Amino acid sequence: MGVFIIGLFLLFFYIIDHFLIKNIILYHLVVKYKKVYKSIIHPLLFGDRMKKVFSAIIFSLIFLAGLSAAALAGNIEIDNFYAGSLSTPLTDVRTLVYTCADDSCSAPSGGAWFNQSSGSSNTETIEYPGTANEQHYAEFMLASCYIPKAFNVRDKGTGLTTTYDNVFNKVNNCKSLIDTFSVTNSVKPNMPVMVDINANLDANTYSAFNQINNVVGFFPGSVDYYSAETEVTLRIYDSNGQVVHQNSKIVDIYMDSLEHVHFEWIPTIVGEYTAEVSTKVIDCQCSSTSKQSASKIFTVVLESDTDYCYTLLNNLTINNANPKAGNFLSVSAVKISNEVDNNGNLNALATDTILKIYKQTTLVFDSSKTINANSDTINFQEFSYNTLTLQAGNYTVDMGAVALNCPFATNNAENETLFFTVTPSGAANNAPVVSITNPTVGATLKGIETVTWDASDADQADLNLDIKIEYKFNGNTWTVLEDGVNNNDGTFTWDTRTVPNANDYMLRITVKDNEGVEATDTVNQFTIGPNSPVVNITSPQVGNIWDGTRSILWSASDSVQADSTLDMLIEYRFNSASSWVVLENGTDNNDGTFTWDTTSVTDGNNYELRVTATNDVNGTGVDFVSQFEIKNIQTAGNPKTSAKKIPDKSRKKNIHINSIGFDQEDVKPDDKLYIFLNFENHGDIDLNNIRVKAIIRELGIRSRTIKAMVDDDEQSSKFLSLYIPYYAMPGTYYVEIVIDLDGERRIKYRPINII
């Protein structure tokens, strides 16, 4: 800088000597110093020896001046930082600037030449180097818990100073879509999961962040700002809806990428299971989150099992990781269907598949197709459905698959479900969020219960959100409990006595804002009941002989109302008559006793008694007693006098029914009901001609008769089956179990629900 000033001084006198000194006006300005100038300065500057030196100096100064002018022409950028709005300053913002390797800024040409934090200030100043030609720079602004900013800056030494206001925001409605979910056998690939063999459970889940303004083709060194901290949770439910395994992992998923999450689980019991994987973005860069989930129903078998068919269905996925309204949806998956013969050999089979897509509760797509048999028995075959154009909302993709033309009775199907959210196209509106707080997974509800939830929205008053509450069980369709407007009060009173008892209930709450954007939370695998009364007849008992006036005794209780307020119905029938005779039908009459004058009915040894209790919401409980005798002796003076029971000591045959069980509590029309029966010979002789059958008289159906042999003091078990006709109406029916012992019959009744 000092050389430059000296050069300017010399240049000033050169101009005076050659141009200004002869100018009469300027001459007078320097006349005072004329002698000094002519005697000292002029010879020094402009003598012959200095002309060449001075010329070189002049040209060097011109060159240096040009460089100096270029260095001073760089742009100065002043950045102000704010959180959410211009009214909230944001501090501790780190700014990084790279020189781009090309105009598209696909990569840096080196490290960051500017790397500074604003510290306690919300302002940062960047001085760009001035250049003759336009240069591209990548500029990044990073703030903790806010979405980073990236700019492709074009700068050309104009020497301007510009101020920018930068508003940092959070991501609305963060969600991590589950792209694929699979359950595999880690020991025998592409075979059903087996007992004591690891089940590998894999999920691919997408980042909650995507780069909307793709102006820079690379990430800066601080990549944490470009990842979403996501909690991935796996739950395994058994057939009773109980959680048998749970594990969670927290992963950082980078922007525009997906992460493979792996779980392992070793089953110990055969049966049907449901695996559910869910994602919840917990990153502080999110202002709200939306839970995404996928589930899969699969069967665990024994390694030694043969003579069955199976289907493996995995990798259910949609064609868009961040679907928006107007996008076209395509659904794909992979499958294997095989039969396992009695030697354990495999044979590939074709597969029947069905796809259903729901938008909230509305079925928007329903289709099926048959996929040809695999080329072999171990490699999955991919298939797909082209479906529909999406609208904003929450969707459930449900796909089922089962082997076609299975030659065996056992044919294990699989079902996989994927939940995802479609956001409005280009919408700035924040989606609402909702979380169910009661009931919870595994809870038991009885009587009058309170459903509670938390729902909020960043764009409107929480109380103005619309709430819809629904439930379902046993695979039925959703039933609406409440569907209101501006009804987000966080609570709903549910009288659970109005719905059937079951252990696989699901509850769903949907919240909708003023722009129609929805969010949903679901809780599954909770129990309702028992809400029906429980009845137990204590007198008479099987084999009793009654006469005269006797007391019918029972106990009846209810979990949700006073026992004394139950309505009792007492009935009998004789010789399996088609109708029952009412002894008492009262209101609030559960006193546990009824006096019966048996002399008013015909003597006989094939009487049955039925006692039914009904609560205030028509829930019923019933108990039966069969095979007791009424015997009143005739005398001349006393037409009917009481007779004592005379034991029949010569009777050697005695069958006792230990237990009766059904394979399912509720059945549907067209289902097959399997009945397990265990009975024991309490007599002292072997029984070789026992006949057992099951009957539902109201439906006009009966099982085939099963023959059995039981030695004395031994037990026997048998299976019966009943095909429920397609025309059966919903309701409670009574299954009549009949055991015939050389003409002597034992009868038991058990209720069954048809839904």
Description:
It is a single chain. With about 750 residues, the protein is mostly beta strands. It folds into seven domains: about 1-70, no CATH class; about 80-170, Sandwich (Immunoglobulin-like), CATH 2.60.40; about 175-210 and about 230-300, Immunoglobulin-like (Sandwich); about 305-430, Immunoglobulin-like (Sandwich); about 435-530, Immunoglobulins (Immunoglobulin-like, Sandwich), CATH 2.60.40.10; about 530-645, Immunoglobulin-like, CATH 2.60.40.10; about 650-755, Immunoglobulin-like (Sandwich). It contains four helices and 49 strands. The strands form eleven sheets. Strands 9, 11, 12, 14, 15, 19, 20, 22 and 24 form a nine-stranded mixed sheet that branches. Strand 31 (about 500-510) and strand 32 (about 520-530) form a beta hairpin. The chain is elongated, with a radius of gyration of 43 Å. Residues about 20-35, about 60-70 and about 635-650 have low confidence and may be disordered.
